[in-house]
Design goal:
- This protein is of the alpha/beta class and 125 residues long.
- Helix content is 38%, strand content 11%.
- It is built from four helices and four strands; from the N terminus they run αββαβαβα.
- The strands form two sheets. A two-stranded parallel sheet has the order 1-2. A two-stranded parallel ribbon has the order 3-4.
- The longest helix has 19 residues, at 15-33.
Length: 125
Amino acid sequence: MNVIGSRPDGWWRDRGRAMTALVDKLEQWAVTEGADVTVVFEQPPSPPIESSVITVAHAQRAAANSADDEIVRLVLADAHPERIRVATSDRALSDRVRAAGASVFPAERLRNLIDPGSREPPQIL
């Protein structure tokens, strides 16, 4: 929800639709970029969201920060956490995944990459 919530586009009116739209955008981006993507939600989407392109996961129990806990668990369980980039703008989650060996990618920057018609601004060096 951190990536979904990075833009005030009315997502809160229909969380299920927002979750499905995020998965659709991530699928398109993953195919184009050849990226291995996992999206983690706080609770299982209802109706379920399935993908043959990306992994759709959820926390074992829905609670505050449970998706964060699941993300950290996945990073810790991975044999190569240094290959993982977590898209979030949550400072506490960022600290936790860095401590587990992964890197962090700002949620807004990911939205700029996956939203059609949206372009990431050029980097100023």
